[in-house]
Amino acid sequence: MTATAVHPDATVGSTADVSDAVREAIGTRRPLRIVGGGTWLDAGRPVRSDARALGLRELSGIVDYTPGDLTLTARAGTTLADIDAATKAHGQWLALDPPGAPGATVGATIATASAGPLSHAFGLARDGILGVEAVTGEGGIVRGGGRVVKNVAGFDMTRLLTGAWGTLGILTEVTVRLRARPETDETVAVAIAPKAGALAAMLCNPPVDMGSAVAVELVNAALAQRLGIASDGPVLLVRLMGNAELVGTDRAALFGAGGIGGPDGIWERLRTTEPAGAAVFRLSGPRARISDTWARVASLLAGLPRALIHASVGRGVVRCIVPDPDPVALSAGILHQPTAGTLVAERLPVSLWGSAGRGTGRDRLSRGVRRAFDPHGLFNPGIFGEGDGG
Ligand SMILES: Cc1cc2nc3c(=O)[nH]c(=O)nc-3n(C[C@H](O)[C@H](O)[C@H](O)COP(=O)(O)OP(=O)(O)OC[C@H]3O[C@@H](n4cnc5c(N)ncnc54)[C@H](O)[C@@H]3O)c2cc1C
């Protein structure tokens, strides 16, 4: 798992502090590198090296939790582990399982729109977020969605800031939707038979629509082994949640297809499996063509036997983790190969970002929105590749 050592140049403990830090940055013309838990700062394109690291970890704590409404508001630096502990006491949970450490902050999770296998049933980060508070590039405090004090009429600011990687504002507070914790939580692992056509057949008719399936991930043999399952080929992991009767029916069907009970803690292991320094990219295509997308990735990575591959079957996304990447092999074998579907690099050796195509957010509309929220170009400059000739 990623473990970037980060020592923020300054830390802030309140929204007013964040606002002051932004005003100071305007005065000194020194941009800001926004830091939550600091566990995933090597993702995205490199931020300008002169940026001052502003740490939000102390901007933490649950501001409001109304179990009867299934909503919770927390400061951005609150960890997902803290939210889990608070909600567990009331038989509730935040059904978001992004890759990474439990020390990841909720602000960063929303800023990077991070989600994991549970998005199969519960949707992506933007589906679970009800409202935000943020500080803009002029130091103003704005709110959108739930807990509204001041909203910007005409557009959905909450969703705009979700996945903007901090480029439109520093999230200081978020309000999320909770769910009742399910009675039963089990995983079944189905090894795909090592015969021609077995994988394609499983992927053409995956058990994604079972009533209690909340996550359906396909993992390659190398990743299955890391998760504690011995297999020569890919393994389908199906997480079942709900009442015991419904789960029992689905478990029996999967056992009938050759499934076995998955090891304890398997999803936590999957979340934290990514080694430091790995190159990570994903290829996505239509859900119905997941078999083609998987085959394409497998052929791109054929020369990299240690690569770990997993696919969110119901979403059509295949994600690849290449430990100790060789930039030359990676560049020739993957980044310069034509692919059907959308190839997105998440983490790369710095030298390879130039090969990963042009950054995002270069169209007029995106640039206009960014200028409106961050007119001085202070927030995470470079993270979308805006400094590389575009
Ligand atoms: C597909 C995928 C794979 C991932 N894999 C991993 C992984 O292997 N390991 C891992 O640790 N994480 C991973 N993540 C990210 C993870 O899920 C969390 O988003 C991240 O771990 C949050 O941790 P942090 O608080 O340490 O964020 P940080 O590392 O501090 O920040 C992450 C990014 O969010 C920005 N940011 C942080 N806080 C705010 C804020 N309040 N307002 C605006 N911008 C902010 C930062 O500038 C930075 O660009 C992955 C995410 C995705 C979508």
SSE map:
Blueprint: E1 10-11, H1 15-28, E2 32-35, E3 52-55, E4 62-66, E5 71-75, H2 80-88, E6 92-93, H3 106-111, H4 119-122, H5 125-128, E7 129-135, E8 141-145, H6 157-161, E9 170-177, E10 179-180, E11 184-191, H7 198-204, E12 213-219, H8 221-226, E13 235-242, H9 244-256, E14 260-261, H10 266-271, E15 279-284, H11 290-300, E16 308-312, E17 317-322, H12 327-335, E18 342-347, H13 364-373
Parallel strand pairs: 1-3, 2-3
Antiparallel strand pairs: 4-5, 5-9, 6-10, 7-8, 7-9, 11-13, 11-14, 12-13, 12-16, 15-17, 15-18, 16-17
The structure holds flavin-adenine dinucleotide.
User: Which small-molecule species are bound to the chains here?
Assistant: flavin-adenine dinucleotide
What CATH architecture label of the largest domain applies?
A: 2-Layer Sandwich
Number of H/I helices: 13
Low-confidence parts, pLDDT < 50 over ≥5 residues? none
CATH C-level class of the largest domain is Alpha Beta
Q: What's the count of strands?
A: 18
Gap between N and C termini:
32 Å
Number of domains: 2
Write the CATH fold name of the largest domain: Uridine Diphospho-n-acetylenolpyruvylglucosamine Reductase, domain 3
SS-based class: alpha+beta
The 3D shape can be described as globular
- Proportion of residues in extended strands: 15-25%
Arrangement of strands in the largest sheet: 14-11-13-12-16-17-15-18
Report the major sheet: 8 strands, antiparallel
Radius of gyration: 21 Å
